[in-house]
Amino acid sequence: xxxxxxxxxxxxxxxxxxxxxxxxxxxxxxxxxxxxxxxxxxxxxxxxxxxxxxxxxxxxxxxxxxxxxxxxxxxxxxxxxxxxxxxxxxxxxxxxxxxxxxxxxxxxxxxxxxxxxxxxxxxxxxxxxxxxxxxxxxxxxxxxxxxxxxxxxxxxxxxxxxxxxxxxxxxxxxxxxxxx
Length: 180
What we know:
Blueprint lengths: L1 E4 L6 H11 L21 H12 L13 E8 L8 E8 L4 H7 L2 E5 L8 H15 L4 E7 L3 H9 L3 E6 L2 E7 L6
Helix pairs in contact: 1-2
InterPro entries: Acyl_CoA_acyltransferase, GNAT_dom
Protein name: GNAT family N-acetyltransferase
Pfam family, one: Acetyltransf_1
């Protein structure tokens, strides 16, 4: 099973293991680490800083460049506190110009040790459901040209290809009926 859980400093050990499994931040899409000063440090204090950063994004018009958003950690299992964290999902509540062109409503990533187990597909479906709960009717999801695994995940999740812009493939997923 796969669930989305809110970032929580109490899960710092699972978070640290996940960050270390990525082996660097280049594949941590949806994590939001770029809003920290430097890369996330896999310690209790580093996790606390990370969680504080994710909580700060809930309000609108953060700095004129970012939009209100919700961060989730993807957990394997039923979301119990001892379940492994397997990835990140970031849900943007609205789209600014850059997000419309390249970033989309949802960004996500699954740690290398947990890939090819269906977590990305299930997390994307849960993210679309959360977007529907916010009143978003169509969810824009993008992936890099050449990221065939992500493209397959998006298409399997109902994504309809629109076009390619600046090296990104853009897909729309209808959110109607996704609320449960």
